[in-house]
Hints:
Blueprint: H1 2-13, E1 19-28, H2 31-50, H3 53-56, E2 59-65, E3 71-72, E4 75-85, H4 88-103, E5 109-114
Antiparallel strand pairs: 1-4, 1-5, 2-4, 3-4
Helix pairs in contact: 2-4
Amino acid sequence: AFFESEFRRRRNSLYPPFTNLARLLIESSDEETADRMAREAEAAARRVLETHPDWQRKVLSIVNELPSVQLLRGKHRRQILMKTLVCSETEAFFSELSDLAETMSDSAEIYLEVNPTTMI
């Protein structure tokens, strides 16, 4: 009964396994840098979609939102949350975001997490 109820809820609300939940997690020892890099990461993700209209139709949302834990081990944290359909276009989108995250900043660490087990 639990499985059936949870399965129905996830399908109706477009949660995994029916979609992907992903985030770009930004960490920096400086709060202003974390804020700036979060804005830049969101803008970069949107620019990637502008150049790939077929990918854009598969991304349901992109939101710059504070994580539940904003300071961890001396690092300020920010996140860009994304909900996408499960398909090859979003895999390509995530691949490009991952490459972009590696090159965006020397002053912050940026990670792409797809369907993370925790959002803390």
